Amino acid sequence: MDEADRVQQAFAAVPRAHFLPRGARSRAGEDIPILIGRGQTSSQPRTVGDMLRLLDVRPGQRVLDVRSGSGWTTALLAHLTGAAGEVVGVELEPDLARWGAANVARAGMPWATVHRSAPGVLGDPEHGPWDRILVSADAPALPRSLVEQLGDPGRLVLPVAGTMTLVVREHGSLVSSHHGHYRFVPLRSDTDPAT
């Protein structure tokens, strides 16, 4: 099965509506970003699909989901890793972290969790390295601290200054490529002094 089919299966298995505020659930099928509170959004499905295809998640991998918001991307990633994998979502906003954790718990995939980011820390370096890292917020520059959390081999997908960026680490080398322009909420610069 190719990656596009695996991503489509994940979308079918993890309905976006379950990860939206009650009043927004009727709009879950619209290909638009939807506000989820605290100035954050649930990214439009087409954008999430593009990012997941670039990330190329494999069963059994360890995946970090940065700015996990409602937990939807965390649950999608958990579907892609399967029960042999591990997915950790980190969210800066305490209210969203609690809500996202509850949403992921209800999804019935105990190998996936969401917790609040440690103050001043981007990602989860304590539990790295990670096979895959997904970032759902726009960084002004490539965050060195996240690159340092990436395993070898590993893939990191994030928007950098509005451009979707894929960083691949393999045999000690890093290769970056660019994959179109996207709009995201900003990745808070106070979480990563290295940017």
Question: Can you tell me about this structure?
Answer:
With 195 residues, this protein is α/β, with parallel strands linked by helices. The chain has a single domain (3-191), classed as 3-Layer(aba) Sandwich (Rossmann fold). It is 26% helix and 29% strand. The chain contains five helices and nine strands. It has helices spanning 3-13, 45-55, 72-81, 94-106, 144-148, and strands at residues 34-37, 40-42, 62-66, 86-91, 112-116, 130-135, 150-160, 163-170, 173-181. Strands 5-4-3-6-7-8-9 form a seven-stranded mixed beta sheet. Strands 1-2 form a two-stranded antiparallel sheet. Helix 1 (3-13) crosses helix 3. Mean pLDDT is 90; it is low at 189-195. It is an enzyme of class 2 (transferase). It is found in: Cytoplasm.
Q: Topology of this protein?
A:
Blueprint: H1 3-13, E1 34-37, E2 40-42, H2 45-55, E3 62-66, H3 72-81, E4 86-91, H4 94-106, E5 112-116, E6 130-135, H5 144-148, E7 150-160, E8 163-170, E9 173-181
Enzyme class: transferase
GO cellular component, one term: cytoplasm
Family: Belongs to the methyltransferase superfamily. L-isoaspartyl/D-aspartyl protein methyltransferase family.
For the structure shown, list the relevant keywords:
single chain, 195 residues, alpha/beta, Rossmann fold, 9 strands, disordered C terminus
